[in-house]
Amino acid sequence: MDEMNKQDCHYEPLPGSDSKADQSNNDANEGPSSQKSKVHHLNKYALAGAILASTNSILLGYDIGVMSGAVIFIREDFKISSIQVEILVGCLNVCSLIGSLASGKTSDMIGRRYTIMIAAATFFIGALVMGLAPSYTFLMVGRVIAGIGVGYSLMISPVYVAELSPDLTRGFLTSLPEVFISFGILLGYVSNYALSSLPFGLNWRIMLGLAALPAVFVALGVLAMPESPRWLIMKGRYEEAKQVLIRTSESKGEAEYRFSEISQAAINSKTFSTSRQGVWKELLISPSRPVLRILIAAIGVNFFMQASGNDAVIYYSPQVFREAGIQGEKQLFGVTIIMGIAKTCFVFVSALVLDKFGRRPMLLLGSLGMAVSLFGLGLGCTFLQNSDEKPAWAISLCVIAVCATVSFFSIGLGPTTWVYSSEIFPMRLRAQGTSLAISVNRLVSGIVSMSFLSISEEITFGGMFFVLGGIMVVATIFFYYFLPETNGKSLEEIEALFEDELH
């Protein structure tokens, strides 16, 4: 629906709204068409809900960051091989498939809010098991449990925030999970640096066990969060949805427009099969042309997010820096802190401008920047490997290239993947479609993490980074041709974008 059509629409008043005179005044002065012409501001209630939901993502970020250092001590403590290290690191991502797939059905049944609590509780148990693990086997059990919690979190947090957010600030608010992932990674790096000097065997246990603390705060924070208004309307709880929309909108007119649009989308959804079998059939067996394009876009952006190798670069950054000639644990962890600061700063800046510049420009800039950075990193690593000396310029090139890689990831793929995945599916398919796309995300992340060291041993770190750079060139072409711009569109409008030819 274009802007002209919106101005001519008739909006049904919210149940329990003010008198007709007040309603008329609101529609005349603060209707949706006038709202979209105003300079948009962050709604404090929507921001608070988004922050509470996004703090769940600290759990994954902390695990990624802290495991990069903890695995050095775990390897020495349990005398495990490189393959066992890869399995230990990557199994969390693979097992998060379980949580990602289950979260769609769970969130439709019990709501988005309580699914976030399940994610935090599951990760809490996993963190405790890892911190107390007496052997490699028990450590793996903890990783599996934590992985399930991560899977729940990665799917539900962006979906909840997207459904809660006003249209014009949805990009910023839905990118907050990636901001908190980056912040969690930085906390993990700081934990590595601060705890590395503790007695051997105790240091990595405290590093991993500390992840249980934020899980407790996330679970408690759920109690202060509102439920998704779209989920409430799907369940027929209109009065509760109305109250949430009023608090997350700038005016009564905007709230009424959002209520009317979501209600109409819910009515349209009832024309399709509402059974679980019907939803999956529409997604995977007999998708319409728009749904097929949505699936290609969502799965594609999630595939390239992890095929970029970003998670593996972060997990194994100490090994990469050690190969580059940086020795000593404190020095290694100090460099990773610098990398974490760069990543966190850039993802926050990207989140701030995502609603201004749009999804496509940020994705294209980020993927092109990653390609150049990865080629530079491959060049530096190749030179260092073939040189008996370790010149400062080559080491500096590797450090700068790694920081640039994660920074460009934070500009483009990092925040935009969560935003795009959670906003392009229609209401009837959003939970299951998003869970499917994020399951691909987790599977690819696990494959890359569990094969990164082995492949690098065969083709060298330099060769591996050249391959990843090539993948990002392909990703840039995919984003240009297959991803339409969704910035400023309501969730109910976006499906129409995929009905037209993509440019």
Number of helices: 25
The main sheet comes to: none
Which percent range fits the helix content? over 70%
* Mean pLDDT level: 83
Which structural category fits the helices and strands? mainly alpha
Describe this protein with a few key phrases.
25 helices; 503 residues; single chain; 80% helix
List the helices and strands and how they pair.
Elements: H1 3-8, H2 20-30, H3 32-37, H4 44-54, H5 57-78, H6 82-110, H7 112-132, H8 136-164, H9 170-174, H10 176-195, H11 203-209, H12 212-221, H13 229-234, H14 238-247, H15 252-269, H16 276-285, H17 289-307, H18 310-315, H19 317-323, H20 329-357, H21 359-385, H22 392-411, H23 413-423, H24 430-482, H25 491-497
Describe this structure in words.
There is one protein chain. The chain has 25 helices and no strands. By secondary structure, it is mainly α. The relative contact order is 0.14. Residues 1-39 and 273-277 have low confidence and may be disordered.
Give a brief outline of the structure.
By secondary structure, the chain is mainly alpha-helical.
